[in-house]
Write a structure and sequence with these properties.
The structure holds 2 protein chains of 2 kinds. Chain A has helices at about 5-20, 25-35, 40-55, 55-70, 75-85, 90-105, 110-115, 125-140, 145-155, 160-175, 180-190, 195-205, 210-225, 230-240, 245-260, 260-275, 280-285. By secondary structure, chain A is mainly α. In chain A, helix 10 (about 160-175) runs antiparallel to helix 11, helix 12 packs antiparallel against helix 13 (about 210-225) and helix 13 (about 210-225) packs antiparallel against helix 14 (about 230-240). The longest helix of chain B is centred in the middle third of the chain and has 31 residues, at about 195-225. Classes of the chains: A mainly alpha, B alpha/beta.
């Protein structure tokens, strides 16, 4: 039996055992396989996944490191190490592991994406965009990559076309992805198309009904189109769901003031200023706005 | 043949004046594209190299200039936001250092603007040319798509009326509150929220607008009460939230709120015009309409608006009300049109030559600059650009969209005024992007 056919048989046997829920037997099979075939990195990964999936994180990490000692050039194993380190909030170690994965397997879009995702604290935005562009070439059908590129473009205030093409790509590739509509909404707001932005945030909320950021954004876009009927409940929901308190209460204050609820607005503004005295300037800007009374002085 | 890109942000303000420049440049063998500025920015990498006239010099314009220059275009600019302004502190927000460093030529409308720039940016001295502003050419011609005809029609329909142009875009902005306006100013780089001097300037403008609003309302109520048989048309600035004015004027039977963007026709039609430091006060005076300016309280801003140089100025709405009423009632109007003295006072702020157009003077400079562009791509490539880039939506559509039909009608009107023999075809490359080609 060749190595290839032996491995295929093991895959089949493992699948059957896992389908029957026989975790112990699955683990024994893999461990026996690794004694005979220690250079099979996929087997190491399956064992790591089993151990991590049954709450044995420390054991999974030890297994992974053993696998890497045997298979130092396996991009796949380095990638998994990066994932485990990141999941355990050891982001610097995760980053190193992903970089190693990229050196050994430059065609891995997953690695590129994980390296570029902001949560890994890749501060160099140009480097991040390069990685994302590379990921897009490697995996042009990844909606997540497109969204990350769009987010980078928005963050650096790129031209509309640079954002739009990637947002639209994500929407086509993954029409059920809430984040695609959210980012499109943010983009439309930036372009001052607040009616279109509202529509996108509403779609986001259909897919992610308890997303506080989407409620906040919906409230803001509705407010800027003079639609307080939608803005007010959306802002209040964002508060209930725990969105950034000063931001959403400030928006609420603006909505209330423009609805002529001046006392309620002042109450919100007083509250925000206590939390963050730097809001004093913003408060003044809101309070300079004309009221109906100003037209009758 | 070198192409000249004339960029537009606000079509009601800039389109016709660009057609004047186009007429003078086409006759000098330049090809012309009049374009909404976002199309230009989106398609920059594919456009044939040429000359570009930017409509402003702020931070956002400067970024576009820089990008265009990197692609080999020659950069010129004129400051449309400063058309009615000579106040140094306000001018400082309009001219960014990067724009001054990048522009190959800076067109300015008068000596005051030139002196301001030379003092602030000594290195730009040799690149400044005083030409006036072609918007005054437009006004002098009474031209617009059909402004003169429309004005006659308005007079026929409405009879004598008083036009009140408001200018409260900071305290009554279209996007609801002053914080929105403040945020926009920060985003385009005309206001640094961490600079106490900038904040002080900004808030002094807000106080100025509140004073103006108070007196304009006193004028409206006083006039409506005292002269209920005379129609008053209130035309809020396009950057304002018109609903507030509609609500405010609801009980005033003789007052009507109007949003028509063709402000020239309305100014031509009015018996007298009232404003509070609005640029339209300057335009109205140049059109020959008697203009009343209200300058309440002691604000430094009053002296910085050119319109107050050419208006009959009063400190309160009540006094303005009496002056307007006397003017309308008298056989000999008390408020004269633009006098010789006022015209002469105007020159240092806005150079207006009685016989030579600003657009012609600009065209002469642009013709010389064109000789420095060598080896640009053939203009045929312009037609290859997809219409999908440079789509206009939302606010951009409101500000700059013009149909090809309206563009051509306006162009015919300009040609007729100039008695131009040019045969020009117009191709619409994208929304509000028009390629003007001399027909062989």
């Amino acid at each position: 039996m060749t190595t290839h056919s032996r491995r295929e048989q093991t895959r089949t046997d493992l699948r059957d055992l896992l389908t029957r829920g026989e975790v112990g037997a699955s683990e024994s099979l893999i461990q026996e396989t690794l004694v005979k075939d220690p250079f099979w990195s996929d087997a190491w990964i399956e064992l790591v996944k089993l151990q991590a999936g049954t709450g044995r994180g420390t054991e999974a990490m030890a297994t992974l490191r053993s696998g890497l000692r045997q298979n130092h050039e396996s991009g796949h194993l380095w990638f998994f190490l990066g994932v485990l380190e990141s999941n355990n909030n050891r982001h610097a170690d995760g980053l190193l592991a992903f970089e190693k994965a990229l050196v050994t397997d430059p065609g891995s879009a997953f690695t590129l994406l994980r390296l570029a995702v902001p949560s890994l604290d890749v501060k160099d935005s140009k480097n991040r965009e390069n990685l994302l562009s590379w990921a897009c070439v490697v995996d042009p059908l990844s909606a997540q990559v497109r969204l990350e590129i769009a987010k980078c473009a928005l963050a650096r205030r790129a031209r509309a076309a640079a954002v739009e093409i990637n947002v639209k790509g994500a929407l086509v590739l993954a029409p059920g992805k809430a984040e695609s509509y959210y980012i499109n909404g943010v983009f439309q707001h930036r372009e001052m198309n607040n009616l279109a932005a509202m529509a996108e945030f509403k779609k986001t909320l259909i897919l992610a009904p308890n997303n506080p950021a989407a409620f906040y954004q919906l409230a803001r876009s509705a407010f800027l189109t003079g639609n307080n009927k939608h803005a007010l409940p959306a802002a209040e929901t964002a508060i209930e769901l725990g969105y950034a308190e000063t931001d959403v209460r400030f928006l609420l204050a603006r909505i209330l003031r423009s609805s002529s609820r001046f006392d309620d607005s002042r109450h919100q503004l007083d509250r925000i200023e206590k939390l963050d005295p730097e809001y004093a300037v913003r408060r003044r800007m809101v309070e300079w706005t004309v009221t109906a009374e100003d037209f009758h002085r | 043949m070198t192409v000249l890109y004339l960029l537009i942000e606000e079509s009601f303000r800039e389109m016709t004046s660009r057609q004047f420049i186009a007429a003078d440049c086409l006759s000098k063998n330049l090809q012309v594209v009049i374009a909404q500025q976002w199309w230009f920015a989106e398609n920059l990498a594919e456009l044939p190299r040429g000359l570009v006239l930017f409509k402003g010099n702020n931070h956002t314009q400067a970024s576009m200039m820089r990008a265009a220059k990197d692609y080999g275009h020659l950069i010129t600019s004129i400051e449309e936001e400063a058309f009615g302004v000579t106040y140094d502190i306000e001018l400082a927000t309009m001219f960014s250092p990067e724009a001054m460093e990048t522009a190959d030529t800076v067109f300015v409308q008068g000596k005051k603007h030139r002196d301001f720039l030379v003092e602030r940016f000594p290195n730009v001295r040799d690149r400044i040319v005083v030409t006036g502003n072609p918007r005054s050419d437009v006004i002098a011609s009474g031209a617009g798509p059909d402004s003169t005809e429309k004005a006659a029609k308005l007079r026929g329909e409405l009879g004598d009326f008083v036009l009140v142009n408001t200018n409260c875009g900071a305290i009554n902005p279209f996007d609801i509150d002053t914080y929105s306006h403040f945020s926009r100013c920060v985003n385009v780089g005309v206001l640094d929220p961490d600079d106490p001097n900038d904040l002080e300037r900004f808030e002094s403008l807000l106080a100025f607008e509140h004073s103006n609003l108070r007196e304009i309302n006193r004028f409206l109520r006083g006039f409506a009460e005292g002269h209920p048989d005379t129609l008053v048309i209130v035309r809020p600035h396009p950057s304002e939230r018109i609903e507030r004015w509609i609500d405010a004027c609801e009980g005033l039977v003789s007052v009507r709120v109007e949003s028509d963007k063709d402000h020239i026709a309305w100014m031509l039609a009015a018996r007298v015009m009232v404003h509070t430091g609005c640029t339209t006060g300057l335009e109205g005076a140049l059109l020959g309409t008697p203009v009343v300016g209200i300058c309440p309280d002691d604000h430094v801003w009053h002296d910085g608006f050119i319109s107050n140089v050419v208006s009959h100025v009063f400190k309160t709405g009540e006094k303005a009300c009496r002056a307007v009423a006397d003017h309308l009632a008298s056989d000999l109007p008390n408020l004269s049109n633009l006098s010789v003295e006022a015209f002469n006072r105007l020159q240092s702020s806005l150079y207006v030559h009685r016989t030579q157009r600003a657009s012609w003077r600009m065209a002469a400079v642009l013709e010389e600059l064109a000789t420095r562009i060598v080896g640009s791509a053939p203009l045929g490539t312009l037609s290859d650009l997809g219409r999908s880039r440079g789509r206009l939506e939302g606010r951009r559509h409101e500000k700059s969209f013009v149909t090809i039909r309206d563009f051509v009608a306006s162009w015919e009107s300009v040609k007729s005024h100039l008695e131009s023999p040019l045969k020009v075809s117009v191709e619409e490359l994208a929304p509000s992007v028009f390629w003007m080609k001399i027909q062989e």
